[in-house]
């Protein structure tokens, strides 16, 4: 059982993204990704795996513009499947639909990567048991090596019928404008710990997860904010174990110079965050 996304840990809960064509995106997220529509209006759709919990919210703002390159914002959000057999069913489904994807083995996890119609990055993955992860001096051993797709496909012959009810938001990976500012905000402010370093990137978590939030400057140091109504990240949620933990984080964030208004804040690169309990 995954315990990294429940109390007493702090983790990512839901991601909201802006899209240029809501109907097209709903089709993609339901038919390709396998989420279900929880609620829908003219401008937004709330998507779920278990029929109750919002995982992804799609929004088509007025005057929306296409996603621009070389800005801060979303690199990918990552949907975590309960078991390897679930990844097998999803992988076979992708192969059958012919939708383009990439794949990688990260030692701690096995991952499939794809983009939505607006170029928003998505990872669908399963974790190896935490007992199989390797830690050295407080850092978890991760890499990007070839995924053994045949071995995954051998886990299950069952047809894909959508994401299983136990699917959750595993992590989010963001483009930021510089690492030192982002590091201070996420560690000193929000209370995450650095658990891995990549070139121009840091991975942070609570409770010794391999990462709840990753931050990179792969779009360039000093990458500007995207336009307010361009396709891309709208906001994401961080879930605290209790009210006290949230209040402590707010105080720490304000000490780093961050503005927090009604439990909404932005990291130094302009990524908007809702602080939940």
Characterize the structure shown:
20% of the residues lie in helices and 34% in strands. The chain has 277 residues and is an alpha+beta fold. Strands 2-3-4-1-15-18-17-16 form an eight-stranded mixed β-sheet. It has an eight-stranded mixed β-sheet with strand order 6-7-8-5-11-14-13-12. Strands 9-10 form a two-stranded antiparallel ribbon. The longest helix is centred in the first third of the chain and has 14 residues.
Give the structure's gist in a few sentences.
With 277 residues, the protein is α+β, with helices and mostly antiparallel strands. The strands form 3 sheets. Strands 2-3-4-1-15-18-17-16 form an 8-stranded mixed beta sheet. It has an 8-stranded mixed beta sheet with strand order 6-7-8-5-11-14-13-12.
- Taken from the alpha-carbon principal axes, the silhouette is globular
Which stretches are low in confidence, meaning pLDDT under 50 for 5 or more residues running?
A: none
H/I helix tally: 5
**Rg, nearest Å:** 18 Å
What is the number of E strands?
Answer: 18
Terminal-residue CA separation: 21 Å
One letter per element, helices H and strands E, the order comes to EHEEEEHEEEEEHEHEEEEHEEE
Range of helix content: 10-25%
Task: Give me the secondary-structure category.
Answer: alpha+beta
Summarize the main sheet.
8 strands, mixed
Task: Show the helix and strand layout.
Blueprint lengths: L10 E8 L3 H12 L2 E5 L3 E5 L5 E6 L13 E8 L3 H14 L4 E4 L3 E7 L5 E7 L7 E2 L2 E2 L8 H5 L14 E8 L3 H11 L3 E6 L2 E5 L7 E4 L15 E8 L3 H13 L4 E2 L2 E3 L5 E5 L1
Parallel strand pairs: 1-4, 5-8, 11-14, 15-18
Antiparallel strand pairs: 1-15, 2-3, 3-4, 5-11, 6-7, 7-8, 9-10, 12-13, 13-14, 16-17, 17-18
